[in-house]
Design a protein that fits this description.
It is built from eleven helices and twelve strands. The strands form two sheets. Strands 1, 2, 3, 4, 5, 6, 7 and 12 form an eight-stranded mixed β-sheet that branches. Helix 2 packs across helix 3, helix 8 packs antiparallel against helix 9 and helix 10 packs antiparallel against helix 11. By secondary structure, the chain is an alpha+beta fold. The longest helix is centred in the C-terminal third of the chain and has 25 residues. A hairpin with a 4-residue loop joins strand 6 and strand 7.
Length: 395
């Protein structure tokens, strides 16, 4: 889906729900009523970046902003979105278009393999998520679409099945070499909690998180269907092959213990050393952050966020100047911590701040950002929210 503007500013004004927006769009586009509606959340990954496809832990939070899909069974496949004009008619078996309908087409193909897709459908999609901000708008779309389309086919898929359909749609059909974190939190999110997800064995552990997070958008969108993310994943696969020469039983990079880092640095080519160092240290940081969050130690959580950002900047080389400025500003003005969230090379920074100072801190961040880049950033807040759900269609 193309770039869209944020609907909620730091003033705290609540946006119209994505489900209502999608239902209104459906009625105006197809001149009839939808029969099914669903929505799924975006996410902020507190910490655990680029660990999910390396067999390590992640600590995401489902956020209040969502993507909704409403529709009805039809004799054709027709899609419309609040970020595009007009209705797109698609053929499920045609080559991908390299545009946003590919994500829905991918979901349909994967549902067909489960005999859980309708023969055709008219769908309207609306989102309150900023696109390209590193908040998993693509997984929100694919999980919501999987839910809506399977319901149109008369099937009720489990959250685990929705995760797999959405993951396979994005990875195998669209070509994004992602892990399963985004789809997992979109399906399993729960209000007031973060989710420690051990990606290697699939263990999910809920961690209480009743507080508020601030999201500061860099204003630079990222694209995941090629380029840097796929290159980093390739480098990690190469690094794992090197490590297996002296650690034959190593199943994933995240299983490499920190005590092996000196030997790894001696054996691997320089570019790969940095990637492995990030994965190994981020794995330790993520588990430590989950423990600190469970204990209510936000000072320690914040410190780990900043360490993670520095690792992204130095070892994974995935940050950008706008994100670095936001993190530096947040720490100067009294935040617990901040870091770039999402794959990187654009996106948004998550800021954890003391409740009594958060308004002042985000105002200072905004001023520093505008002084540095000549424009104010979009800033908004969220609490941990629920995962995918069926929505009621307004009467």
């Amino acid at each position: 889906m193309p770039q869209s503007t944020s609907r909620e500013k730091s003033s705290g004004v609540r946006p119209v729900s994505a489900a209502r927006l999608a239902n209104s769009l459906f009625t105006s586009s197809f001149a009839t009523r939808a029969t099914v509606a669903s929505s799924a959340p975006g996410r902020v990954n507190l910490i655990g970046e680029h660990t999910d496809y390396n067999g390590g832990p992640v600590l995401p939070v489902a956020i209040e902003r969502r993507t909704a899909v409403v529709g009805r069974v039809a004799g054709r496949w027709a899609l419309t979105s609040d970020t595009e004009s007009g209705v797109a008619q698609v053929e499920i078996d045609d080559p991908m278009r390299h545009s946003w309908p590919d994500y829905v087409v991918g979901v349909v193909r994967e549902l067909r393999a489960l005999r859980a897709a309708p023969p055709g459908a008219e769908l309207a999609i609306a989102t309150t998520l900023p696109i390209g901000a590193g908040l998993s708008s693509s997984a929100a779309l694919t999980v919501s679409a999987a839910k809506a389309l399977s319901l149109l086919a008369g099937k009720r898929l489990s959250p685990a099945q929705l995760v797999e359909v959405a993951f396979r749609a994005e990875y195998h059909q669209v070509g994004v070499r992602c892990g399963r974190m985004d789809q997992t939190i979109a399906a399993h999110g729960e209000r007031g909690t973060a989710l420690l997800f051990e990606t290697f064995d699939g263990i999910l552990q809920r961690v209480p998180f009743p507080g508020r997070l601030w999201v500061v958008e860099t204003g630079r969108s990222h694209r995941l269907t090629g380029g840097a993310l796929n290159q980093r994943r390739k480098e990690c696969e190469e690094a794992l092959a090197f490590c297996r020469e002296w650690r034959p039983g190593l199943a994933a990079l995240a299983q490499l213990p920190p005590s092996d880092l000196p030997e790894m640095e001696r054996r691997l080519p320089p570019p790969l050393v940095k990637r492995v160092r990030h994965v190994v240290t981020e794995t330790a940081r993520t588990r430590a952050a989950a423990e600190a969050l469970a204990a209510g130690d936000l000072t320690r959580v914040g410190r780990l966020l900043v360490e993670g950002h520095q690792s992204l900047r130095v070892d994974y080389e995935s940050t950008i100047p706008e994100a670095d400025l936001i993190v530096d500003s947040a720490m100067r003005h009294g935040a617990f911590g901040a870091r770039l969230t999402g794959a990187g090379w654009g996106g948004a920074v998550v800021v954890l701040a003391p409740a009594e100072w958060e308004t002042r801190i985000v105002a200072e961040i905004s001023a520093d950002f505008e002084a540095g880049f000549g424009r104010p950033p979009e800033i908004w807040s969220t609490r941990a929210a629920s995962g995918v759900r069926r929505e009621t269609i307004p009467g």
